[in-house]
Design a protein that fits this description.
Length: about 140
């Protein structure tokens, strides 16, 4: 089984350049966290939903981005800390964005979160590439 995994892994890194891996892995992470956001937002306010979603999504994203996109082998704790700060900063910006779009402009939470996700994707890629997962 490990041999099969290694073959798939070799193919993954050979077949796709970093930017495509970012889109694929980030797409998976984004869809997973967005579905979680939408489901939790049916029960909780967007404020509570945002905190729960970010707590879970940050860890998923750091681990998958670090290994499956940037193939980083640098200091794990240092990289986790930097990436964690990036995501916490993005969460603060996300909260401000949701406050303005939902509470001030009256947009539904699901739409506002989709807009923010699109806007933040490039910033997260650049932070990971230039700061968080450098070897």
């Amino acid at each position: 089984m490990m041999r099969l995994y290694r073959k798939i892994e070799e193919w993954w890194f050979a077949a796709f350049p970093e930017q495509i891996r970012f889109v694929l892995v980030g797409g998976f992470n984004t869809v997973a966290s967005y579905i979680l956001f939408v489901c939790l937002n049916l029960v909780f306010s967007y404020q509570i939903t945002l905190i729960i979603t970010y707590f879970l999504a940050i860890n998923l994203s750091i681990f998958t981005m670090r290994y499956y996109v940037f193939r980083s082998n640098g200091n794990w704790i240092e990289q986790y800390s930097k990436a964690g700060l990036t995501y916490l900063s993005m969460m603060a910006l996300n909260y401000i964005f949701l406050y303005v779009t939902v509470d001030v402009w009256g947009q539904p939470g699901w739409l506002a979160q989709a807009e923010y996700t699109i806007l933040s994707t490039i910033a997260v890629y650049l932070m990971h590439k230039k700061v968080n997962f450098t070897n």
